[in-house]
Amino acid sequence: MCLSLPGKILSIDDSSELRMAVVDFGGVQREICIEWLPEAGIDDYVLAHVGTALTVLDEKSALESIEALTELSKILEEEEKNNPLSI
Fold it and tell me: In this structure, is residue 65 part of a structural domain?
């Protein structure tokens, strides 16, 4: 199973061999490759997997995905509080 995450492009660097971008994933910024998405621009949302942008997302879909992931994170944190793993 693969997990891809939505993120917002903050800046783009075309100066190297591959087109790279700094992308914000819910407050965490990472540099990822956007070489295969020539249409991607600053403030666009992309879906990324292992450091590579796979597709450009419309803002509505991206924000819905981010909201769903945030809710899942909250549920998992609450579950961990209620049922901590014992080692």
Answer: yes
